[in-house]
């Protein structure tokens, strides 16, 4: 069976054809992660950071049932203001296409579409993981299983701090996904630079990470890589502050019976309210920081592929 190919913007298609550096970006941060106009400003800002560091951004989304890789300013603006837009994981894409829906793509969907488009590196904020209480609910993000089957490298600030980090790291090990921390031994926890857990590996330059990616793919493992990039120190929140805020938000979600797809957007919105906007500022800064590292990795990775090694 021939695999579907998403529609690429002209710039993205030309860059891929020339073997140039491209960084994929998800769109749920636009459709479900932030209010307007902060979502549009962040999307444009993240794309600008990628360009400043030598790569081409490729925001991925579903527009009226069409799989799209690379959006122009007008399309980003329309997506940022859209009211009837769904959130699509990898499993939801086919139905969104049939129903001609517009959708923000999650980490798992973005990884899948990036791979189909021939993009090796993807920058996001945080990756989904094993939810607290998963031993009862079995609530484990599809992001983790997609990392175990799709070779895209995902640059993130660790996993969202609303999750069970220890179980998430165990699950990634089971999925054979290497977890590489950038410039630190510690695995970051989204809003904070340290989670209390160690990453599998530490590498200190984008070039080292790109080489590890290159060799990982040459080994034919078939899995992605998680690149854990700590939030900049100036933007980080204190563990005491964010842990207390998260506990309050989780308790409220339990009381209201909120779960499944609605849980993460609810928690992030409520955490932003409880933190008086501090978590949103931190979120924006960490996404830009991840985009910067991803772009530098993409430049180095493109050079390795062209070298013929």
From TrEMBL:
Enzyme class: lyase
Annotated gene: psuG
Binding locations of substrate: 87, 107, 141-143
Taxonomic classification: Bacteria, Pseudomonadati, Pseudomonadota, Alphaproteobacteria, Hyphomicrobiales
SUPFAM superfamilies recorded: Indigoidine synthase A-like
Catalytic activity: D-ribose 5-phosphate + uracil = psi-UMP + H2O
Pfam families: Indigoidine_A (PF04227)
GO molecular function, one term: hydrolase activity, acting on glycosyl bonds
EC code: 4.2.1.70
InterPro entries linked to this entry: Indigdn_synthA-like, PsuG
Oligomeric and partner information: Homotrimer.
Organism (species): Rhizobium puerariae
Needed co-factor(s): Mn(2+)
Binding site for Mn(2+): 139
Cofactor stoichiometry and binding remark: Binds 1 Mn(2+) ion per subunit.
Protein name stated in the entry: Pseudouridine-5'-phosphate glycosidase
Role description: Catalyzes the reversible cleavage of pseudouridine 5'-phosphate (PsiMP) to ribose 5-phosphate and uracil. Functions biologically in the cleavage direction, as part of a pseudouridine degradation pathway.
Active-site residues, as the UniProt record annotates them: 26 (proton donor), 160 (nucleophile)
């Amino acid at each position: 069976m021939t695999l579907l190919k998403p529609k690429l913007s002209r710039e993205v298609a030309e860059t891929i054809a020339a073997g140039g550096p491209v960084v994929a970006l998800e769109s749920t941060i636009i459709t479900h992660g932030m209010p307007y106009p902060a979502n549009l400003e962040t999307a444009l800002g993240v794309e600008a950071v990628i360009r400043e560091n030598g790569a081409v951004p490729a925001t991925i989304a579903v527009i009226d049932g069409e799989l799209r890789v690379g959006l122009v300013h007008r399309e980003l603006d329309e997506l940022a203001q859209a009211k009837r837009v769904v959130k699509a994981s990898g499993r939801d894409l086919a139905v969104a296409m049939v129903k001609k829906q517009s959708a923000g793509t999650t980490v798992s969907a973005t990884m899948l579409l990036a791979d189909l488009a021939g993009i090796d590196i993807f920058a996001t904020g945080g990756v989904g993981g094993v939810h607290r209480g998963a031993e009862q609910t079995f609530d484990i993000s599809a992001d983790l299983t997609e990392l175990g089957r799709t070779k895209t490298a995902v640059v993130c600030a660790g996993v969202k701090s609303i999750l069970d980090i220890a179980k998430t790291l165990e699950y990634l090990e089971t999925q054979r996904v290497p977890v590489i921390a950038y410039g630190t031994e510690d695995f970051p926890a989204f809003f904070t630079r340290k989670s209390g857990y160690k990453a599998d590996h530490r590498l200190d330059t984008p070039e080292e990470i790109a080489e590890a990616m290159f060799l990982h793919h040459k080994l034919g493992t078939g899995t992605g890589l998680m690149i854990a990039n700590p939030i900049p120190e100036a933007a980080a929140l204190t563990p005491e502050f964010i842990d207390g805020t998260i506990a309050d938000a989780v308790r409220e979600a339990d009381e209201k019976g909120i779960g499944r797809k609605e849980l993460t957007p609810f928690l992030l919105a409520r955490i932003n309210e409880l933190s008086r906007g501090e978590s949103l500022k931190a979120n924006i800064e960490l996404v830009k920081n991840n985009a910067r590292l991803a772009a530098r990795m993409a430049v180095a990775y493109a050079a390795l592929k062209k070298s013929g090694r």
